[in-house]
Amino acid sequence: MDFIKKTLEDFGVEASVGDYLSTIIFIIFVIVVSLVAKYIAKKITLKFATRYVSKSSNRWSRYFLERKIFQRLTHYVPAIILYYFSYSFPSYQGLLIKLVIMYMIIVTIIILDALLNVANDIYTTFEVSKVRPIRGYIQVIKIFIFMIGGILVISNLMGQSPVILLSGIGALSAVVMLVFKDSILGLVAGIQLTSNDMLRVGDWIEMPKYDADGSITDISLNTVKIQNWDKTITTIPTYAMISDSFKNWRGMQNSGGRRIKRSIYIDTNSISFCTSEMIEDFKKIQYLQSYISTKQKEIDDYNVRYEIDRSSLVNGRALTNIGVFRAYIQAYLEKHPGIHKEMTLMVRQLAPQETGLPIEIYAFTNKTEWAVYEGIQADIFDHIIAIAPSFGLRIFQNPTGHDFRSEHRSDSTSPSIRGEAT
Hints:
Largest sheet: 5 strands, antiparallel
Strand content: 5-15%
Radius of gyration: 41 Å
Oligomer: single chain
Shape: rod-shaped
Helix content: 55-70%
Strand order of the largest sheet: 4-3-2-1-5
Order of helices and strands: HHHHHHHHHHHEEEEHEHEHHHEEHHH
């Protein structure tokens, strides 16, 4: 400062003006030195950090570069320079030191925030992160860091001990609870979800209340993000996963089998006993040869043992087309390459309804992928619907316009309509 004043006086500047000019020039000089020093430190740090990361076999080191840890450390350089030069301004030294300390506290908070992000990035490289994510806990730590940092900044500016400010937090607890209500609820919910292994990133869940049906992409302190199958994003409060119900399909995916539970409806007017001609035709069906032989022998032995009069179909036992049809579907599914052989497999008859007799297929595919599962299911029911007429059965469906037109044409060509004798 004295050197600048003397130089200005040598140029003929008055002493009173020289004091102001020397101060301004010195401030500009300090600022320029600080910026240049930061720029040089940033360039040198980045150069060595990039070289180290490119040569390092440690895959985690790149996260420090991506989160700009090294660049943020260089913010300490101008703070140190400003702190050193603050002694050149005795009148404002106290204020300058407070500002420098405040700046360093803020830089420290930013660096700690970036380090926590690095910790989360490193943790997500492990498979356990899908089971027990820590992002919610990291967000809680960040909240405390920012709160403590804010207290330190305020206490530094006020020149008071942080303990005095901390003692007043009790009075602000109600306000804190109100402001951070969602965060507190989310923290508690996150602990429950994690400890009970209820949710993982990548799980397929359904939550009709929020119109959510898709895969979880992110679990944070306050929200759970779900990418629906139509590629839209649904955001649900974390605490809602505890207070409301949802369906998690992870169990199905891990089991290796996906359930088929669908019925076809048979027109009851088409159900009948099997004639000898029908039985002979059924014997030609590969899946039914063993069943027909065994069942026919069982029925004949029963009727002979109890001396059943078979002149009436009502007496004794006999094969029905619906029973043979069920046996065929059972054998067909047991041989189908897309059906899981170690899980429940049955073809059952449900209670008759106004839409016919339901024949329900209850089985599991050996593929859980959605598109593959739908393909296997469609292939099975395509075949069942197509072969039903071969058993003398009709699939029930409500009359369509085509049925009414066909009936009308039939009536219009009948002898009674044409006035002919019947």
